[in-house]
Amino acid sequence: MRHARLKPVEQSSFMHIYNRVAGTRLDLPFQAVEKAEFVRRLVRLSQLYVVEIVAYQVMGNHFHLLVYIPALPPSLSETCARFNRFFPNKPPLTPESAACVRLAPQLRDISLFMKDLQQPFTRWFNRTRPVRRRGHLWADRFKNTVLECGLAVWDCWKYIEMNPVRAGLAPTPADYGFGSFGQWTDTGRHPYAEVLEQRLLPRFRELLQVNTTQELRQALHREFTRIQATTVRVPSERLSDAMARKGRPEPFTTQIDRRVRYWVDGLVIGSECFVQSTVATMRTKHIFSKRRLSRAVGRPNEPRPDLVCYKHLRALLD
Asked: DSSP label at 75?
């Protein structure tokens, strides 16, 4: 049964957005051309919406976005300016028009943003195949996880950027050209540097002891180097072992050298106070239950991170 999406309405929020194409995990329809086109459309659409991109990764059959959504819609003058720049051939909007009043709150709506990203990309993808394709591209509607600014955003950001390394596509996140960290490394400037400066640095100065985006990039690089240097590769788990685990709770780990479903399938991640207040704000209070909280575990020999996820996940077989 489809549930109502959790979207903070009257408060700013960070979100991890994820979706994958229909098919099996071995289907990889996105090659360099498709990945570049997806990034191009993402960059362009962010000029219309006030949904701000923090990080992105486009893989062979899925994508990850880390976004910031402001609490308030843009002003009517900004709404018109964004619309008129984005649609130069359409009749211009004016702040006094009813259309502008209707459009303003829509420009912070993540559902509309993703619709305008995914549907046109699907049409482009279908018509550019050697044999023209028809039908759906995405397996389901996109998933979104609300994140508390601070440790939750930091750990999720690292998890997103490590995707090509986990998939064996690049030795480091810096070597992958279809992710934000790879672009940051290649050009020396983050593709959304203003977002980092305005949204992350004020909080990360205390959390990570950084004062500039350059120091923030160095902190990310150190984390990636440390993780890769201490990761111990183990043989693949036997099918019988996986079946024995099926149906048991899957641990919520903050290790970024492995796939962690909580970052994708979790509803809200942050401190317990943040999770409780966020869920209570977006849903009726009686629905919140501490029994649904999954507490994170960190890497071996490290302190337990102060993170919880509002959702229990069962171990599944691929």
From this structure: P
